[in-house]
């Protein structure tokens, strides 16, 4: 496992969304740093919770923006977001029984999902919103 390095290829062209994506990647990297040592950082659980909260806030803002501009592939976005929210809910529920395993699993899931989501799905809405004059 390694930290995520922000790349230009992650940019959607929508400044507010790109900033939130960048901030979330930084939180995911903070989580990585907190769990990679031999001893678990006592703040790891708090960092994970901040990741979940920030992601939820971001997804709500993203959905609002896409609805506001009539994004034609909104349902694909909503389905992807709902899948993410369900997985996060499952991870939170299981966390109390095996936190050390779930921290690593959560990091791996967050890392993969966000990169795949940003590069795969969010790039599409970036192009669409730019045609609507959104920066």
Attribute tags:
single chain, about 140 residues, mainly alpha, Four Helix Bundle (Hemerythrin (Met), subunit A), 4 helices, about 0% strand, elongated
Question: In words, what does this structure look like?
Answer:
- There is one protein chain.
- 75% of the residues lie in helices and 0% in strands.
- The protein is mostly helical and 135 residues long.
- It has a single domain (14-131), classed as Four Helix Bundle (Hemerythrin (Met), subunit A), CATH 1.20.120.50.
- Helix 2 (44-68) packs antiparallel against helix 3 (74-95).
- The mean pLDDT is 88.
Layout of SSEs?
Blueprint: H1 15-35, H2 44-68, H3 74-95, H4 99-131
Give the low-confidence spans. Answer: none
The residue fraction in helices comes out at over 70%
In CATH terms, what is the architecture? Up-down Bundle
CATH topology: Four Helix Bundle (Hemerythrin (Met), subunit A)
Through-space gap between termini: 33 Å
* Major sheet summary line: none
Q: Give the rounded overall mean pLDDT.
A: 88
Quickly count the domains. 1
Please state the CA-atom Rg, rounded to the nearest Å.
Answer: 15 Å
Order of helices and strands: HHHH
Instruction: Give the C-level CATH assignment.
Output: Mainly Alpha
* Total of DSSP H or I helical runs spanning 4+ residues: 4
Number of strands: 0
């Amino acid at each position: 496992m390694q930290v995520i390095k922000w790349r230009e290829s992650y940019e959607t062209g929508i400044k507010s969304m790109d900033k939130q994506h960048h901030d979330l990647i930084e939180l995911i990297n903070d989580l990585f740093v907190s769990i990679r040592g031999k001893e678990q950082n006592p703040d790891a659980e708090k960092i994970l919770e901040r990741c979940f909260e920030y992601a939820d806030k971001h997804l709500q803002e993203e959905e609002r923006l896409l609805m506001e501009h009539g994004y034609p592939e909104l349902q694909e976005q909503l389905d992807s977001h709902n899948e993410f929210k369900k997985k996060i809910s499952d991870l939170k529920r299981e966390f109390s029984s095996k936190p050390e395993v779930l921290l690593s699993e959560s990091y791996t899931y967050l890392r993969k999902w966000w990169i795949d989501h940003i590069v795969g799905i969010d790039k599409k809405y970036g192009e669409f919103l730019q045609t609507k004059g959104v920066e």
